[in-house]
Amino acid sequence: MKKWEGPLMKVALVSCVKNKRDGRYKAKDIYISSLFRLAWKYASSHFDKVFILSAKHGLLEPSKLIRQYDVTLNNMAVCERKQWSRKVVKQIRRRIIKSAEIHFFCGKKYREFIVKLLQERKCIIPLKSLGIGKQLQWYKNRL
After folding, report:
1. pTM exceeds cut of 0.85
2. How far is CA 107 from CA 1, 5, 8, 67, 123, in A?
3. Cα distances (Å, whole numbers) of residue 67 to 39, 55, 77, 136
4. Which segments within the chain are labelled E, that is strand?
5. Whole-angstrom distance, CA of residue 6 vs CA of residue 62
6. 74, 68, 27, 90 alpha-carbon torsion, rounded to 10°
7. 3-state secondary structure labels for all residues of 91-104
8. Per-residue tens of pLDDT for the chain, all 143 residues
9. How many other C-beta atoms can be found within 10 angstroms of the C-beta atom of residue 46?
10. Cα–Cα distance, 9 to 36 (Å, whole number)
11. Which of 33, 34, 108, 116 is a Cys-bridge partner for 17, taking CB atoms 3.0 to 4.6 Å apart?
């Protein structure tokens, strides 16, 4: 993928979720929870580019074909999450220009080490202190 070369780019990172369709689908279509669908709808209508943070695949292009999987950061040890985060940060640095704003629409375990490793980037966490119910409400109020 070519890096964005235009004016200030705003990128959204939406995390994967447990509920997935069986079979092989585009990444944006495999996740079926209400939270993911609302986050995806909001991000894809408000940001220049949206990627999915996948516990299995790292930084995913929405159109990439993937199969259903059962991997989550919620069950990983801290050292495994740090290793995953280093992989994702390398992917971000290769695919997203340094001047882009990166907005995280994901839980703490998906963003905590990434944000620390991306200190040279502008990282924004709009839903940082909201539980799932409040996140759903936040998306619904803005769509």
Report:
1. yes
2. 26, 29, 25, 22, 14
3. 21, 13, 24, 26
4. 10-15, 24-26, 49-54, 58-60, 65-67, 101-105, 122-124
5. 21
6. 50
7. HHHHHCCCCCEEEE
8. 555 455 689 999 999 999 999 999 999 999 999 999 999 999 999 999 999 999 999 999 999 999 999 999 988 999 999 999 999 999 999 999 999 999 999 999 999 999 999 999 999 999 999 999 999 999 999 99
9. 13
10. 22
11. 33
Supply 15's token pair: 């995390």
Asked if 123 contacts 105 with a C-beta cutoff of 8 angstroms, the reply is no
Q: With 0-12 CB in 10 A as exposed, 13-18 as middle and 19+ as buried, what is 98?
A: exposed
Local structure of residue 10 (DSSP, 8 states): E
Q: Find, among 136, 85, 133, the residue nearest to 109 by Cα.
A: 85
Pairing label, strands 24-26, 49-54: unpaired
Which of 43, 42, 45, 61 minimizes the C-alpha distance to 2? Answer: 61
Q: What is the pLDDT of residue 8?
A: 84
